[in-house]
Design a protein that fits this description.
This protein has 79 residues and is α+β, with helices and mostly antiparallel strands. It has one domain. It is built from two helices and three strands. It has helices spanning 24-37, 54-60; strands at residues 2-9, 14-20, 40-49. The chain has a three-stranded antiparallel sheet, with helices on one face. Strand 1 and strand 2 (14-20) form a beta hairpin. It is flat, with a radius of gyration of 14 Å. The termini are far apart.
Length: 79
Amino acid sequence: MRWACEYESKSGSRGLMIFCAKDLNAAQIYLEEMTDYCGHRHVFNLNELMEGGMDEFYRLFPRLTEVVDGDNIPGKKVQ
């Protein structure tokens, strides 16, 4: 089964993680490990991916898939 979740690192970066796990219990254990061993401060919004298309991401993670102003992306070199 495919799963996706949002995460926030200790540095404040936010992102979307896509991974495989055999069931919901295994997926939740993986989220705990991300917090305990991988340095993530907050891991949340776990969803099973069923459809496999981009429309599913827009539906499940609307805040992360909004169009952003590319000039405000941290670390982006402005020419």
